[in-house]
Write a structure and sequence with these properties.
Elements lengths: L11 H20 L9 E2 L1 H12 L4 E7 L4 E8 L16 E11 L3 E11 L6 H20 L6 E5 L7 H8 L5 H4 L3 E3 L12 E4 L2
Parallel strand pairs: 1-3, 5-6
Antiparallel strand pairs: 2-3, 2-4, 4-5, 6-8, 7-8
Helix pairs in contact: 1-3
């Protein structure tokens, strides 16, 4: 039982709601140019792994932000199958990912599509969910300057949606006009019961 004047702690739902409101406020402020993009340094080890990706030695590189030094570092790099991607994502921490999606289109030939995937879990902290968005545009420009040749930029909030079927549909949507929009949000049908996760396609 709480004493008079004691503040009742927030429930998990209220904490998540407050973080969501904070994230939305950051996004609005960025649009109003109150919060500038952060041009973060990419450390040398991460650049080495990016070069391996560009040369085709590996098909996956994952990056995390050092919150204290505001430096982008490589957290993982290897060859992975598309169905292994969800296992490479931490549960409650955002991550930037470079992935070369290898697949057969129309049963005729293999395509290799470099994809940038920003994983932003709903459980992430307000700080991380505000820091990563401020760094993403500058990081994308650096990746392109390193020769990554990114063809598609995706954002996922739910690991259940990070499947080959979803990835293929986003690269080859039935209606090509969908990719001409500056932004698309898909509310998944099968997994909306958890937190109503989302997938976004944005211009590179």
């Amino acid at each position: 039982m709480m004493s008079e004047g004691e503040i009742e702690p927030l429930s998990k739902y209220e904490e998540l709601k407050r973080e969501a409101v904070s994230e939305e406020e950051v996004a609005r402020n960025r649009q109003m140019k109150k919060i500038p993009d952060i041009d973060m340094q990419v450390d040398d080890d991460a650049i080495k792994e990016i070069n391996k990706f560009v040369k085709g030695f590996i098909n996956f590189v994952q990056f995390g932000i050092d919150n204290k030094k505001e430096v982008i570092r490589c957290s993982d790099s290897r060859n992975v199958n598309v169905d292994e991607l969800p296992d490479k994502m931490p549960e409650a921490v955002p991550r930037f990912n470079l992935y070369r999606y290898s697949h057969v289109k129309d049963g005729k030939f293999t395509e290799f599509v470099p994809v940038f995937i920003y994983y932003v879990p709903e459980e992430g902290t307000a700080k991380s969910k505000s820091l990563y968005p401020c760094a993403i545009d500058g990081f994308l420009k650096k990746l392109q300057s390193y020769g990554a040749d990114i063809k598609l930029r995706l954002e996922f909030s739910d690991l259940h949606d990070m499947t080959e079927g979803v990835l293929y549909e986003l690269i080859y949507p039935p209606d090509r006009s969908e990719l001409e929009k500056s932004f698309r949000e898909i509310k998944p049908k099968k997994h909306a019961g958890k937190r109503g996760g989302w997938v976004k396609v944005l211009p590179v």
